[in-house]
Write a structure and sequence with these properties.
globular; 6-stranded mixed β-sheet; Rossmann fold; 10 strands
């Protein structure tokens, strides 16, 4: 999938949080990295049609994305989203969390929605948790339910916004293993992450945002082995300082 961004800017209350973002890459698996507050989640939300830029343009596979709400609503139905907290409905069990959007948004029949949801939850190792509500699931299980819900719509692109940020290390590994397996099966995704090992070894491309600016992007190996900017060199050295 070709993702092309041209001179994207985004301001909130007169404060610019994204400045002149331009990017043109074939995306199979892209990690967006950088310090907190650098605009990573804002950029992901623009790519996902959840937020319109203040200025600039975007194309997906050569098709311009219009930023009026009707066009964005249609565009969003082609994507899958996984957020930091999973965004599950707390009063519904795992199976219904996946099936409900399929019925109400994508107009699948009851049987189709149930079958598709069951297939995905079993595939993600949740066959014994179908009737559990989010409060009864571990952090890793909740994020796997959220991933199943995102995949249920057969998205052209999966977008993940720091899906492991609130998880213990064990559950972080559990969720990242799932995303890696999805990549191996052909799922295309963009992930905002602070997990540098995953960005380096499981993603083909990496984009580095710093203070609202896209300072570097390209092949993951090049970004980590040959950083070009002082900001990226400093960012990586700080992360590696306490590595085992």
């Amino acid at each position: 999938m070709r993702v092309k961004l041209e001179h994207l800017c985004r301001s909130f209350d007169g404060v610019e949080v994204l400045h002149d973002i331009s990017f043109d890459e074939e995306v199979a698996s892209l990690a967006i990295i950088g310090p907190s507050g650098g605009g990573k989640s804002t950029l992901l939300r623009i790519i996902g049609g959840l937020l319109a830029p203040t200025s600039g343009s975007m194309e997906i596979d050569g098709d311009p994305i219009e930023f009026d709400e009707a066009a964005l609503r249609n565009y969003r139905t082609t994507l899958g989203f996984v957020f930091q907290d999973g965004g599950l409905f707390h009063h519904l069990d795992a199976l219904e969390n996946v099936a409900l959007p399929l019925r109400t948004v994508h107009h699948l029949s009851e049987d189709e929605a149930q079958s598709r949801s069951l297939e995905l939850l079993e595939r993600l190792g949740l066959a014994d948790s179908l009737k559990k509500r989010p409060a009864q699931l571990s952090g890793g299980q909740k994020q796997r339910v959220a991933i199943a819900r995102a995949l249920a719509v057969r998205p052209r692109l999966l977008l993940l916004d720091e899906p492991t940020s609130a998880l213990d290390p064990e559950f972080t590994t559990e969720v990242l293993d799932v995303v890696r397996d999805l990549k191996d099966e052909g799922t295309r995704f963009i992930i905002v992450t602070h997990e540098m090992g995953f960005a380096r070894h499981a993603c083909d491309k990496v984009a580095f945002l710093y203070d609202g600016r896209l300072l570097e992007h390209g092949d993951a190996a090049r970004i980590f082995d040959q950083p070009q900017t002082a900001e990226l060199k400093r960012f990586l050295s700080r992360l590696l300082e306490w590595s085992i």
